[in-house]
Amino acid sequence: QKEVEQNSGPLSVPEGAIASLNCTYSDRGSQSFFWYRQYSGKSPELIMFIYSNGDKEDGRFTAQLNKASQYVSLLIRDSQPSDSATYLCATLLFTSGSRLTFGEGTQLTVNP
Amino acid sequence: ETGVTQTPRHLVMGMTNKKSLKCEQHLGHNAMYWYKQSAKKPLELMFVYSLEERVENNSVPSRFSPECPNSSHLFLHLHTLQPEDSALYLCASSPDVYNSPLHFGNGTRLTVT
């Protein structure tokens, strides 16, 4: 079983729609959860992090965490073509300190 | 200005060459990392340094040799690489190694011929 699992996509949504990106993780000890966005040919950039169960909103982005189900998601409202990128989910085990574990990423395309 | 600068951006080397990748962070962070990103694979952690001391080495082959002379600079020395080592090598930093989000550099695209 992969430690962090994401659908590789591609996920395609029309402009203005809600894009929903999903991530599951295998280790119940995971404490912190991050979403990175990576444009083609560029490095990953942090867009959201969440530590507690529930929703966390930042502008058009909402991160949702359900530790009981070992599930974290990212919703992008009013999707724009500029949101087209690969989205990487990552988790951090408190006990492992430095070992941030990434999923393979989901490629999102927002069509004008 | 990302705060984490990597050079060179692109590197092509033969299997018998020796080269080095350089990373510099201007964020005042205490932890620095090397990651490898290959197509269709998750980011792979290679090395972690905290205050110039290596704290993690994820079973990386000895043909990759890291060096951290101070908390702002990180190098990855390369020698006798294999074609399968071709990938994007990303440097990152964080305030400390525990529970901190990473700030990535733009990466070095390495091609081994």
Spans of at least 5 consecutive residues with low confidence of chain A: none
First-residue to last-residue Cα separation of chain B: 32 Å
Category from helices, strands and their pairing of chain B: mainly beta
What order do the helices and strands of chain B follow?
A: EEEEEEEEEEE
Mean pLDDT of chain A: 91
Shape of chain A: globular
Instruction: Indicate the proportion of strand residues of chain B.
Output: over 45%
Query: Quick one: which chains have the greatest interface?
Result: A-B, 24 and 23 residues
Q: In what range is the share of β-strand residues of chain A?
A: over 45%
Instruction: State the helical fraction of chain A.
Output: under 10%
How many helical stretches of chain B? 0
Shape verdict of chain B: globular
Number of strands of chain A: 11
Largest beta-sheet characterization of chain A: 6 strands, mixed
| Unreliable parts of chain B | none
* Structure class of chain A: mainly beta
Cα gyration radius of chain B (Å): 13 Å
**Major sheet description of chain B:** 7 strands, mixed
Q: Would you mind describing this structure in some detail?
A:
The complex is a heterodimer of chains A (112) and B (113). Chain A is mainly beta and 112 residues long. Chain A has no helices and 11 strands. Chain B has 113 residues and is mainly β. Chain B has strands at residues 4-7, 10-13, 18-25, 31-37, 44-50, 53-57, 64-70, 73-79, 87-94, 103-104, 108-112. Chain B is globular, with a radius of gyration of 13 Å. At the A-B interface, strand 4, strand 5, strand 9 and strand 10 of A face strand 5 and strand 10 of B.
